[in-house]
Amino acid sequence: MGLAASGAVTTFLFFGRYQALLVTGAVFIAIVLVALSAMKSRRFIPATTGAVFALLYGSLLPGHLVLIREFPRSSGSALPYGEGASLIFLLFLIVWGCDTGAYFTGRAFGRRKLAPSISPGKTVEGAVGGVVTAVLGAWGGAAFLLPGMRSADVLLLGTSTALVAQTGDLVESLLKRRARTKDSGGWIPGHGGVLDRFDSLILAAPFFYYYIRFSPFGWPGAAR
């Protein structure tokens, strides 16, 4: 049921059917409530909130990647439709540049713990290094993919998206810690699960989308 609802959420985001999106969420919650009531679950409230959270965290938030891809079509901007793919690549360059820079900078220079109670391995130095490499990734990506972007937007978008991405990483670490599990899955050998590859994107994608849509600076073709 959760997978079906997630598929519906992604589909409605693609077609811009936001009313249908709200209806899907309401129907999903209603079904969960009825099902748990019929099962006479002793964990009624945690199970209900967990199901709703899973739909939001695992579908609606990363579903903003669809909105980013469809931004030229849905925003009425002058951007060619193909530039939606360029925006996706730009986001990935920022987020993965941040992850890579934070890892290597933290390994080389990390001294002060960033959030020891949540993720003991992360350091302040690594976080700063991640922001720097994210901005470099934003600049390189914008130069090749979206040369019309203004320098102020590149700097602000790279910096702010990197900070949100690192927050997303910490949120996923906190979720695993609260769930008392080390990994979110075993599909990718040597990693802490699929979420460890995409945890930064889960929060970064919505931020990135709303930034490019409502940026106070604006750039050629973007909505004002």
Output the radius of gyration.
19 Å
Estimate the global geometry from the Cα principal axes: flat
Distance between the termini: 39 Å
Side by side, the strands of the main sheet go 1-2
- Number of beta strands: 2
Order of helices and strands: HHHHHHEEHHH
Major β-sheet annotation: 2 strands, antiparallel
Roughly what fraction of the amino acids lie in strands? Answer: under 5%
Approximately how much helix is present in the residues?
Answer: over 70%
Poorly predicted sequence stretches spanning 5 or more consecutive residues: 220-224
Q: Which class of secondary structure composition applies to the elements?
A: mainly alpha
Query: Average pLDDT, to the nearest integer?
Result: 85
Helix count equals 9
Domain tally: 2
Keyword list:
2 domains; mainly alpha; single chain; 224 residues; flat; two-stranded antiparallel ribbon
Q: How would you summarize this macromolecular structure in one to three sentences?
A:
The protein has helices at 2-15, 18-39, 44-60, 64-69, 71-74, 83-109, 124-145, 151-178, 194-214; strands at residues 113-115, 119-123. By secondary structure, it is mainly alpha-helical. α2 packs antiparallel against α3, α6 packs antiparallel against α7 and α6 (83-109) crosses α9.
Q: Explain this structure to me?
A:
The chain has helices spanning 2-15, 18-39, 44-60, 64-69, 71-74, 83-109, 124-145, 151-178, 194-214, and strands at 113-115, 119-123. It folds into two domains: 1-60, no CATH class; 76-224, no CATH class. The chain contains nine helices and two strands, in the order H-H-H-H-H-H-E-E-H-H-H. Helix 1 runs antiparallel to helix 2, helix 2 (18-39) packs antiparallel against helix 3 and helix 6 packs across helix 8 (151-178). A two-stranded antiparallel ribbon has the order 1-2. The protein is mainly alpha-helical and 224 residues long.
